[in-house]
Design brief:
The chain is α/β, with parallel strands linked by helices and 317 residues long. Helices cover 53% and strands 19% of the residues. The chain has two domains: 130 residues, Rossmann fold, CATH 3.40.50.2300; 138 residues, Response regulator (Rossmann fold, 3-Layer(aba) Sandwich), CATH 3.40.50. The chain has a six-stranded parallel beta sheet with strand order 2-1-3-4-5-11, with helices on both faces. A six-stranded mixed beta sheet has the order 7-6-8-9-10-12, with helices on both faces. The N and C termini lie far apart (84 Å).
């Protein structure tokens, strides 16, 4: 009997070992590495389109069981350096960065890449990151200015226009330059009377109030993004302005969810420029995930350029 139980125990142990081996193989074959992703954007919790991007990446990470670490890098180079240091120290496998200061953070970017981290540069072409997603900000600005110029040409009014600018970031200064040139090209008789920094809705409200005070017969406002222009929209509505009564048009950029909602109202928010931003960043994220899991970079997608498409009220009804 003792021999029988000893034999039985041996069989059970062997079966247990086999089961253990089988379970390890299953995990190896079916389980994917759980990645940690770092996402750094300017105004990640306050800028309309960046909020949309963050929410989309959050959902993708949650669905895959990945950890997402976010950073607001409003403030420029010092914030970017801090975010990169934190991402590297946290063991991120992927870093998606609005890369507005590569000279200041080049050593950290190289360190990340050398550690095997997949780095994606948003808004700026990078000589270090494996992936970039960019646009010609001058050309985007020109389209914004051209749309504003078309409106002024096609509607009676003073021809006086204001700009929501953002002088803290070089790429948005370049976008503003395009806006001015595009407007002058289409509407040489129009006048850009003033500009005020307003990249966020809370900055756009006082900017809108200032525009109305300085230019009582203002015909339009164009901005480097939707966020600031949406703040102007709120200020103008609070002052009793409307398209039907005052013939005012507002032109934004980014086709954010809030911008599209404002377009659907059919009032002063006249046009936004769709750069397909959320989808483009989502696709870049997916390329990074694939590279992190396989170790292979898709060189054909190393640098992707955003499309540039104006959207008007009729396009979203």
């Amino acid at each position: 009997m003792k021999k029988f139980f000893a034999l039985l125990l041996s069989v059970v142990m062997v079966l247990g070992l086999l089961a253990g081996c089988g379970s390890k193989d299953t995990n190896k074959d079916n389980g994917e590495k759980k990645l940690t992703v770092g996402l750094a954007l300017t105004g990640i919790n306050s800028n309309a389109v960046f909020i949309d991007m963050r929410k989309d990446i959050e959902k993708r990470c949650n669905d895959a069981g990945y950890k997402l670490i976010t950073a607001d890098i409003e403030g420029g180079a010092s914030k970017i350096v801090t975010a990169l240091e934190n991402f590297i120290n946290a063991g991120c496998d992927i870093i998606i960065l609005q890369n507005s200061a590569e000279e200041a953070c080049a050593d950290l970017l190289k360190q990340a890449v050398d550690k095997g981290i997949i780095v994606a540069s948003y808004d700026y072409k990078s000589d270090i990151a494996q992936y970039s997603c960019i646009c010609s900000n001058y050309e985007v600005g020109k389209v914004i200015g051209q749309e504003m110029g078309k409106f002024v040409n096609e509607h009676e009014g003073s021809g006086k226009v204001a700009i929501c600018s953002y002088s803290a970031l070089d790429f948005l200064v370049e976008r503003e330059r395009g806006m001015r040139d595009g407007f002058a090209e289409i509407c040489p008789t129009g006048e850009i009377v003033m500009a005020q920094d307003a990249g966020f809705a809370n900055e756009g409200v006082p900017a809108g109030e200032n525009f109305l005070q300085a230019i009582p017969d203002i015909q339009g406002v164009m901005g480097i993004n939707d966020g600031g222009v949406l703040g102007v929209y709120e200020a103008f509505k609070a002052a009793g302005k409307s398209f039907a009564k005052d013939g005012i048009a507002l032109v934004g950029c980014d086709a954010s969810a809030d911008g599209l909602a404002a377009l659907k109202e059919g009032d002063m928010f006249y046009c936004t420029i769709d750069l397909d931003l959320v989808n483009q960043v989502s696709q870049m994220y997916e390329r990074c995930v694939k590279a992190a899991l396989t170790g292979e970079i898709d060189e054909s997608m190393a640098c992707v350029t955003y499309p540039v498409n104006p959207l008007h009220q009729a396009d979203v009804q």
